[in-house]
Each structure stands twice: as C-alpha cells, then as structure tokens.
Design brief:
alpha+beta, Beta-Lactamase, Alpha-Beta Plaits, 3 domains, four-stranded antiparallel β-sheet, about 60% helix, elongated
C-alpha cells in the first residue's frame, strides 16, 4: 500500500517534506536535550568532586602537614575508587608529589579539577599543597550515546507511522482523484476529432469540493478549446508561411534566409565549393517613400525582388533582411568571375526604369560581397564582412559594389574612432568657425562671408576638414555640424550688427 502511494510524484514529495521537517525538528530538539543531559551529568561529576574537597580536604591537609605518606597514600587510593574519579595527585609546597595507585591509567576523556590544601599556622591559613583530581567523562558520553540511539529510534518509528497515515489520507482525498482527472484530460487530448471531444464528460457526484469544481471548470472550457483548436489548425499554415516568407515581397524572411545560408555553408564545406554572400541596399529608398508614398515604395520593393528572383538559380537564395536591405547567396561558386557574371545580369535587370502606377522610377543600389571560405567560415563572420564591404561601397559612391578585403576592417576601425571623437568634439565645443569675406571685385566691397568649420580635437589635434566631413556625411553627424554652423553664424552676425 505504501509503495503504491510512493509511485506518485506528489506522494514522494510529501514524504520527503515530512522527513526533512521532522528530521530538522528532531535534530534541534535532540541537540537541546543532549546538551541539557550533558550539563546535568557534568554537574553531578562536579558535585562528587566538590564532596571530596569538602569532606576530605582537612584530613589530607593534616596528613600532608605531618608528612604522613602512608596516610596520604591510603586516602588517595580510597578517593580514586569513587565514581568517575580515575586518579588523584597532591603536590606539596616543597614540590613533593603523592599519587594514587591508578595515576598511570590512560583516560579517554579526562576532566581536571584542582583545589588548594591549607593549614593554620600561627593563626593564618597557609597553602601547603595542591590537589589535582582527574575524572573521566566517558560515562557521560556513553549515556549521551544511549539517549541519542533512543531518540533516533523513536523518531524513525513515529515518522513512519505519521507519514503512512498522512500519505493514506492524501492519497484517498487528493492523489486518487487527481489520477481520475488526469485520465479524463488524456481522453480529451487523445480524441481523434472534435465531435469525440465534445462527447466526453466527467461526472463526480460523490464529492463536491474544490477538486470537483476544478474538473467541472475544465469541462466548461472544453467547448472553447474545441473552437480554438480549429482556429489554430486553420492558421497553422499561415503562421508557417509568415515564419519563412516575407509578407510583402514573397521572398525568404530574415530567419529563413539565415537558416538557408547556414545550410549552404555546410554544403560548401562538404563539397569544397565557395559560397558568395551579397548584401544589397537600395540607395535613397527613403526618398522614394517620402516623395511617392509608401504604397509606391512597397510596389518598388516587390518589382525589385521579382527581378532578383529572375536572375538567380534554384540553388541560390534571395532574402529580405530588413527594410530596403536584401541578401543573395550564390551556391557552388568556382571563382570571382562567376560572381561578376551574376552581378552583370543583376545590374542589367535592375537598371531598367520601373513603371509603378504610371510613375517611372530608376533604382540604384550598393552591394557588399563576402565569399566563403576566403572571407569567413561561419555565418556571423560572412555577414559581418559583407556588411563592412557594403558600407565601404556606400562611402565611396552610391551604386557601387565592393568585395570584402582585410584592409576594410582597418578603415572601418579608423572611421568609427574618428566618428566617436567627432561626437565628443561636438559635445565639448571643439568645433570653431573661421569667417572668410567674399568681395565684389568691381566695387571692392564685401557682400558676403563664408563660414568655414574647423575641428581642433583634444586627442588628435587639428583634424583635416576633408577627413572629418567625409566621416560626418557617412555617419549622419553632418546634420549636427550643420546646426552648429547655423547657430554660431547667427550669433556672430548679431554681434556684428550691434553698434
């Protein structure tokens, strides 16, 4: 019976909790009781030692004063036969030692107590020796062990009886009924169709409590569950399509594209073939959206993606990473020439003006290219290097293509460092304006002033204007510099106008 109840996880957990709690409580109570017994037994031992001091100290002092070695030895041997006392030694004031006959016995748990022997001489108490009593606490420890064995045994019996009773009650009231409810739930889950699920009912007339209310609530939810299951089945295919296909363009979504690229890389490893990764960004696509509207922009993306699909092979992959950023992966590339051939086809296809709602739109795009395994042997490295090549292509001149090379990393690092320092320079007022007058050669009068921005970096010193303006245009910081020039120029103009 107990084994049947322990086969259930709840039963095992309850038993474990009972054992842990009762064991902790027993340990605490046992420790307190053993400590109290120890103190009581040690007090009894001290009482017996004190009785020696109170009853025999005078006779020992008298015998020691009279140098009666025989009487001293007799008394010491008699006292050493008392319970717990194993040996007694007297050391006189002139270093004469008197020991009981059993003084050399090995004592397992020694306990030392000492007191002085005094004798009245000329009306004063004179210390004539010291009595050292050595007792053995083994008897105390033996009693404590017996008490501990008794406590543990009684605890085990009580825990077994109480645990069995509690498990029986819990099994009858909870676990047994939970098993019925679980089987009811399994019947619903294993039903072959919705009609069979609807026909399954649970009836528990004997019990009216929280558990029965729970199962009735589950039955009440069943109808809603049937409806939701049907809805989930109907939308499952749509969700799968959304997970792998870009909703607007119909090409692979970002996740599906990256998964396909990983597969192509693994195939390339086995076949010892190269894979080309192309990052494609539509230049100034935001301007198309702003000027023609997002509806026209969406149509542009659809037509552009159809063009990419038309020039790629079935073994290649086309995907949309984000917004106007796309990826093409070319499988089984034997050389760079194959990539150039594909790019020629792509440029030829996309160079044609698009007719969207009677609006003629010409697209330009920048491309960054990395090749497996030359530019990286895993997904992240290939994507990073393709993106680096794309940024290099856009920084040189829009509408270009760039193959990744190791030198681009150094250029990127330098550009990023200069961009960070430029941000600091703008915030820390390291930019200054120099004004250059523009003169009319006929009248020899100044009719305009040109404001020239200069940057004196606290870390790099005077930075070439061409260098930091190019970085600012690439990073978008050119807008911050423009606002600075306008603000400072107007401020200076107001100063010049003052009388």
């Amino acid at each position: 019976m107990l084994r049947e109840k322990l086969n259930h996880p709840i039963g095992r957990k309850i038993l474990f909790a009972i054992l842990i709690c009762s064991s902790i409580l027993t340990i605490l109570l046992s420790a307190g009781q053993l400590y109290l017994d120890y103190k009581i037994n040690l007090g009894d031992m001290n009482t017996r030692i004190d009785s020696v001091k109170n009853s025999d100290a005078d006779s020992l002092s008298e015998a020691l004063w009279n140098y009666d070695a025989i009487l001293i030895q007799t008394q010491l041997d008699g006292l050493s036969d008392l319970p717990d006392i194993k040996s007694i030694t007297i050391v006189s004031s002139d270093n004469e030692k008197y020991r009981s006959s059993n003084a050399d016995i090995q004592i397992e748990y020694p306990y030392l107590s000492s007191f002085d022997l005094t004798h009245k001489y000329k009306g004063k108490d004179v210390v004539i020796g010291v009595v050292n009593i050595i007792a053995d606490k083994k008897g105390i420890y033996d009693k404590l062990i017996q008490s501990l064995v008794y406590i543990i045994s009684s605890h085990a019996i009580k825990t077994f009886v109480i645990s069995s009773f509690i498990l029986f009650i819990i099994y009858q009231l909870i676990i047994k009924r939970i098993n019925l409810y679980t089987q009811h739930a399994r019947d619903i889950l294993n039903a072959e169709d919705m009609e069979k699920i609807d026909s399954i009912a649970f009836n528990e007339k004997e019990n009216k409590d929280e558990l029965s209310e729970l199962i009735y609530a589950v039955d009440a939810m069943k109808n809603g569950l049937v409806e939701k299951v049907l809805l989930l089945k109907n939308t499952e295919k749509e969700l799968q399509a959304q997970a792998t296909t870009d909703a607007l363009t119909g090409i692979k979504s970002r996740r599906a594209a990256l998964e396909s690229l990983i597969y192509m890389i693994n195939v390339g490893k086995r076949s010892k073939m190269q894979v080309a990764v192309l990052y494609i960004d539509l230049d100034d696509f935001k301007q198309i959206n702003d000027y023609w509207g997002s509806q026209v922009g969406d149509e542009v993306l659809k037509v552009f993606c159809r063009g990419m699909n038309e020039v790629t092979r079935t073994t290649d992959m086309v995907g949309r990473l984000a917004g106007d950023l796309f990826i093409i992966a070319l499988a089984d590339i034997e050389s760079k020439l194959a990539v150039d051939t594909f790019l020629a086809k792509l440029y030829s296809k996309i160079a044609e003006p698009l007719n969207i709602n009677n609006n003629e739109i010409t697209l330009k795009h920048s491309i960054g290219i990395s090749i497996y395994p030359k530019d990286g042997d895993d997904l992240n490295q290939l994507l990073k290097n393709a993106d680096t090549a794309l940024q290099e292509s856009k920084s040189e001149r829009k509408g270009e293509r760039s193959y990744f090379n190791a030198g681009m990393n150094e250029v990127t690092i330098k550009r990023d460092k200069l961009s960070r320092l430029l941000t600091k320079g703008i915030n820390d007022a390291e930019l200054t304006l120099h004004y250059q007058p523009i003169t009319n050669v006929k009248t020899n009068k100044i009719y305009a002033i040109e404001a020239l921005v200069r940057w004196n970096s606290s870390e790099m010193g005077l930075v070439s204007t061409d260098a930091f303006i190019a970085v600012a245009e690439f990073s978008g910081q050119i807008h911050d510099i423009g606002r600075f020039i306008v603000k400072e120029s107007l401020k200076q103009l107001n100063l010049w106008k003052k009388p």
